[in-house]
Structures are given as C-alpha cells and as structure tokens.
Amino acid sequence: MSVDPNIKTKPPKLMRAIREAMAGTESVQERLNDFVAAISKAMRVKVASIYLLRPGEDLELSATQGLKKSAVHKTRMKPGEGLVGHVALTARPLNLADAPSHPLFSYRPETGEDPYNSFLGVPILRGGRVLGVLVVQSKKARSFNEEEVEDLLTVAMVLAEIIVDDERVGGKKGALKGISLAPVKPETVQGKSFAGGLVEGHAYLHMPPVAPANMLADNIAAEEIRLEEGVSTLRASVDAMVSGDTAKLSRASKDIYETYRMFAYDRKWVGRLREAVHSGLTAEAAVERVRNEHRARLMKSKDPYLRARLHDLEDLANRLLRALSGESLGPGNKNISDDAIIFAREIGPAELLDYDRDKLRGIVLEEGSASSHTAIICRAIGIPLIGRAEGVLDLIETGDPVLLDGEDGVAYIRPLDTQLAGFHMRMNIAGEMSRAYEEMKFTPAKTIDGRHVSLQLNAGLLVDLPQLDQAGADGIGLFRTEFQFMVSEFMPRLKEQTELYRKAIEAAGQRPVTFRTLDLGGDKILPYMDPVPEENPAIGWRAIRIALDRPGLMRYQLRALVAAGAGRHLKVMFPMVATVDEFIEARALFDREVERAKKLGHELPQKIEVGVMLETPSLAWQVMSVCDHADFVSVGANDLMQFFFAADRDNARVSDRYDPLHPAAVSILKFIADGCLRNDVPVSVCGAIAGRPLEAITLVAMGYDQLSMPVTGIGPVKAAILKLDAEKLRKKLEPHITINSRLSTLRDIVREFCLEEGIPV
C-alpha cells in the first residue's frame, strides 16, 4: 500500500535531540541544562531558556543556553510581566519577529539578551496547569514557522512530565531548589455523591492506555494474527470476571459483567476491528478507530445512560489495547497502596476489578454518572464514589493524601491539619453513631407523644435488599423497577421481571414492598429504545405518559407484578401522574391484568393496593379527588420540589436556590397530608428529604407517618424521631406556614427546637 509522504514516519530532529539529551542525566538541574543545550543546537538558535513558576510566586529563570549563566535562579518576573510572563498568564504561544518593539517587552540587563530580536515562547503545561515557559531566541528578526512552534510545544509537554516525575519520585532530592512543580496546595473539590461513605487514603492516578504511536501496519497478516490473539485474551479475561469470585459481589454485579461479556463477544464490534486491520492499520490503531466511531455516535446522545454505556465500550477498548501490549489482565494486578483512592476521568466496571478490593478505599471521577455500571457496583460493595469532580485531575498526584466524603460528594486533597482533625472527628462520630444505630435497629420509631413512624428503604436492585435487615427498616417504600431495564441491553423477559419482583417480596418477608412502575423518559432512556429528542425532557414525554400512550410495555410489567405477588401482599404505584384521569386510566390497565390472571386460573395476590406517586403540583391540588381512587399516596419529594420551585435538582447552578423547609414548600406538603388524612388514605414521603433528620421530623410534625429513604438515613432519622414531640413541633411551625409568612426558611426554627429538646440532627 502507498504511504502519504506528508505523514511523519520519524520523530522530528528536535525530539531526537531531546531523547539523546535525556540519556545518562541524573538531577533535574542537569536535565534542564541538557534540554536547553539540545534545543539550541537542534533549532539552530542562539538562546534557549526555561522559566519555571514558583508556587504562588514568580517565574524564575531555571536553565539557559545563550543567556548569562549568572542570571539562572536570580532573574524573576511575575505572571503577566514581560513577554515570558504574558505566555505564562495566557497559557498560549507567543511568536515575535521583533520582540524588543513589543509593548510588553521587559528588558533584564543581567541576562545579556540585548542582541536578540526573534522570540518564541510556549507554556509548559501539565494537566491544565502552567508550570513555566520554554523560550527560544535568535539574533535574526524572523517569525518561527508552524512546525517549529508545534515541535517546541511537544518538547514543553515532555519537559513537564519529566521534571514532575523526577520531583515526585525523588522528593526534595529530585526537585529544583525552591521550586515545587507538583501540586502542593490544599484543594477542596466538590462533585456528586454516587456512593456514600467517609474514607481517608492516598491518591492513585488511573491512567488508561495511551493512543498508539504506530498507526500503519508493516505486515497486515501479522497484525490480523495479533488482533485475533488480543481478542481471545480479552474474552478469556472477561469470562473469568463472570465466572470467578470477582463477579460474586452481588447478583446485580454479575448481571453487569454478563452485559460486559456480551460487548466483548459482539460480532459487529470485532468485525469492525478486523475491517480496520484489513485497511492497513495496526491492531492498536484499529481499536482506536472503532473506539472513535462509537464515541462519535454515542456522544450525540444527551441521555446520560447511553453515555454511561459509552464508558463500558471505552473500558473494553482499553482492555484490548492492554492485551495487545502483553499486559496481564488478571484481577487485582495493579500495584497500589493499602489505602488507595483512585482518581480517573472515568473508570469502567472491568477496570475496577484490576484493583485489589482489600486495598481500594474510594474513587473520584471527573466524569461518571449515578446510573453507570461502576456506580452500581461501588454501591453494591460499599466503596465511596464521587463523580463529576470537574478539574480534579489537574490538582492531584499519585501519593497525595486525600479525604473522601462520599456523603456530600467532596474530596479534600492534601488536607490542612484542621480539615484532617475535623474529618477524623466525623469518622469517629460516624463509627459511634453507626454502633448506636445498630443498637436501636429493632427499636420501633415512636415519638415521645406516641406517634408510630414507619421508616422504609428506597431500592431498585437485588443488592439493595439485604440492607432491609442491616438497617432494621420497616419495608421498601419505593422499589424503582426501571433499573432492571436500564442495566440490560435487551428488554427483560416476563420471567426475569417476575423473578426480580418475587425476590424483593420474599426478601421483605412480612414487610411491605411498594413497586413503582417504569419511570422512563427524561434522563432515563432504554438502550434498546430510540430516544425522543425533547427540549425539556424532565417535563416531557416520560413515565405514566409513555405508559398510557404505549400501554404494551406497561401491561407487560403489570402482568409480571401480578404474577410475582401471587399469594402475597402486592403494592403498586404509578409515577409522574399530573391529573386524576391519568391515574384512573392507569389503574384500569392494572385491573385488566388482574382479571386476565383470574380468567387463566393463576393464583392472585392475597391483598392488592394501587397507589399514586404525587410528584406534580397539579395533582397536589387534586389530592381530595385522587383519594377517591387511590389506595395510598406517596409524595415523590424530589420531583415535587423541583417542579414547585422550577429548579432542576441536578443543576448545580440552581439546585441550591431552594430550601424544602421554605414555608411555601412545607405548606404544600401539609396540604397533601391533611387531604389524605381527611379521606383516611395512607400517605408517605419518599425522597432525599425523608432521609435527613431535620426535614424528616418536620414531615412527621406535618402528619406523615411513613418515610422512605436511602439506607444511610434510617439510623439518623430514627434517632431524631425517638426524641421528638411531634405535636409540640407542629404547634411551633404552623403559625409560620400561612400565606402571611415572611420567612425564607423554617430551618433555623426547627434547628433551634432540636437544640432545646435534645434531638440529634
């Protein structure tokens, strides 16, 4: 095959000179001196200089070829000062034919740079941070060409990696005097909590394989053999995941690795790889080409679930590249510290198994999503996970001490002593509280004035079910059925759905399980269904609206629920209902499935309750009417509050602008509870606010006797309820939730009440 003559087959002369200069050098200063000498010779310029940024201070001339050696470590300037300072401030190259005439030119007589006219400065960048500036100068007034600029940028990138690695490995011995290039300042990074927990450890940077340097195959037949061998190795490692101990983390985890194996055996994917090799690419380049094709297709989707599947494919591609390089793909093969906290842009479910679970303490991701396979596994095995920690990789180095707060989604990097002390106190308190919650696990949640409150769990996977006994919960107040559909590449069969629902009922024993029918649409699109583009999907075609317009899927699920509830107590509720007519229509579908089962002679549930999930303000004002048709009402507080305040709870810019303890919010919650109580219809709240003690006791005071929450909320909420006089708090709050209220929140009043009454919150 012919080769494009414009493609570089050898490294540029400058890069070859740098490689030679690196050989045999020892200290960082020696490396820098050799660097500038090699650059000066290869580019045929009189001056090559390196300026490095002292943390929080100035740029310092650290090595030079052509300027006076006496100026090294003495000449300094601030970012923005002079041409060098301008490059550091803007982080962009500056190419000048007549530097002295530039308005920013700053003359430094101690350097002896008087005779030099042309100037090319490029930033030395690492992870988005400016470490310094690399400069070349010559007497002849000329602009450097594009290739020279590009080569110098490449050299600057290599330079950054070498000097930071030398410093990290060699410590003070490997660093320049007075200059630290690795991040040293304490940093606090806010992300999203995808799996809770408080842990302390040391950072480990997860680095996926680099893009292949050699793109064109010298021997296509040999590359075909390499590809087939790599795919076989990959598949063997994936088979081991599914059948080995690593896949026995939970049933949900095994389902995920089964899906992952399906990707590895996908004939279309392997076929595209073979086609790419046939076209003349190396096996590694073929993997990169097919990866880019998948990336381009899936990145067009706004659906976070489909984007999460992209990361599974990225994981698979990385694993194949490692197989092609001859690296072992066995579980736990990464060499990490005994208290490692992994930092990565993204990490897939297979890559997770590369780390020893006994050593892995937590994970921090720049990207990620709550519905990703990695997040599901982390929740299953109890590893704290923070995602969407924007820019965190620019601030971290392997070995840095880290505090990871998986409850609030915060990572403290190189923490201050005060942060360390406070975090240790929280960990100790969490341990003590955990022991206290364990002791009260089987104590009923009863207020001082005699109100019994049922504390139930939110769940959605089989891995959640053991938490019922672990937390001493009274049941499952919300079982999200869509998770089973979302972790599968194909719609679950009727038998699979029935088995999942039956296992949930059996795990609960005599305790109730409330199944929410499919809440699809919005940010939850099934991989085997075409997404419907919408400008505002949160209030678009989703949940009950899809079910009523396309009743086949809904009836299929209701059929599975009726079968799973045979001889038992079955509770089903419909989500995102906006009008009473919608609920009546949905209930009619359920009744038809019950009649069908009866006609076929199937065993029916011993008791059936059909309820509504109240998540829209419109239905809140129809609460009296919906109580005529519903057996129970469950307030979906997350969506109700975001619709009530017109603030997207997943948008960091607006999610903190409203308080669920605002008088208006408490007022509508009380209105709903009062309406249900008048009609003798049970009412509950499920959502984040039900699991927070301050909000939970307010809900109880407003008339709610059932709360459903994440497992982490059971203990704290129960501890608060056991000390609560609900009637006393109600009387304190009611005067402030009228239309005449001028308060912006009731939070301070509730907190003050808790202090007076000794309620732990």
Walk me through this protein's architecture:
The protein is an alpha/beta fold. 42% of the residues lie in helices and 16% in strands. It has 26 helices and 22 strands. The strands form three sheets. Strands 7-14-13-9-10-11-12-8 form an eight-stranded mixed beta sheet. The protein has an eight-stranded parallel beta barrel with strand order 15-16-17-18-19-20-21-22, surrounded by seven helices. Strand 11 (360-365), helix 11 and strand 12 form a beta-alpha-beta unit. Helix 7 (267-278) packs across helix 8, helix 15 (494-508) crosses helix 17 and helix 23 packs across helix 25 (726-733). The termini are far apart. The model is unreliable at 1-11, 169-174 and 246-252 (pLDDT under 50).
Question: What is the rounded Rg?
Answer: 31 Å
Query: Would you identify the regions where 5 or more consecutive residues have pLDDT less than 50?
Result: 1-11, 169-174, 246-252
Task: Specify the helix fraction band.
Answer: 40-55%
Question: What is the overall pLDDT average?
Answer: 83
- Shape assignment: globular
Strand runs, count: 22
Q: Helical stretch count?
A: 26
Main sheet characteristics: 8 strands, mixed
Record the strand order, biggest sheet. 7-14-13-9-10-11-12-8
Beta-strand proportion: 15-25%
